[in-house]
Amino acid sequence: MAEDDVVSSPPAPAVAFRQRWDVFLSFRGEDTRESFTMSLYKSLDREGVRAFLDDDGLNRGDEIAPSLLADSAAAVVVLSPRYGDSRWCLEELAKICECRGKLILPVFYQVDPSHVRRQTGPFEEDFRIHERRFGVDKVLRWRRAMEKVGGIAGWVFKNG
Asked: Locate the TIR domain: which residues (predicted)?
């Protein structure tokens, strides 16, 4: 083929792909919904950050769809004293940790990061109860997720 016969196609247009949510918020509603998490949500919204809060199109008891997590660029996990007593929160955390390449930003709200990492302090009894109820294998997945997130440098808030 002669050099003059080469047909070049125009460059592909730049496609601006933006995920549906900038941030997925994971939190224990009873601990922080009406205080810290709502304040964080409102601050993010004021700055133009699209944050998914659990009442945005999700009914109580609905499963967190993997696509919901995939449609978020990052996850902010607000770990509070009762986060570990919720099977829902722990399952959500495990799914977040299973998303490869997902930016995870932990907020340690009135808990010590080492307690999260080791499941001690306020989490110790919760995990014993979960192991009796759901079995060691299932709870091991949750423990690994807590260990992972507890090992990420995040923000520590000791006072509410």
From this structure: 19-160
